[in-house]
Amino acid sequence: MPELHLTLYSSSFCGACSSTRATVERVAELVGDRLDWNEVNVADAPDESEASGIVTTPTVVITGADGAELMRASGVPTTPQLLSAVAAALP
């Protein structure tokens, strides 16, 4: 079971979202099975996005195995930035 979960909130018209997706994919490959991730398109899941307090895309949210939010960032992270955030969030 993964120790962390990452959610990428994106939108179809967001060019920065594709860059963030590529960064998330690279980090997920590097971290392996300690991290799982999914992507939520805010237009396809407006209730979930609103309940999560998403106001801009891209937004990355890292939660622990218990569902507690450990980190949130908007904008396009670099691979080192995202790896650092994941490493800091690991138990």
UniProtKB/TrEMBL annotation:
InterPro entries: Thioredoxin-like_sf, Thioredoxin_domain. This is Thioredoxin domain-containing protein. Residues 5-86 form the Thioredoxin domain. It comes from the Bacteria. Gene3D superfamilies: Glutaredoxin. Pfam families: Thioredoxin (PF00085).
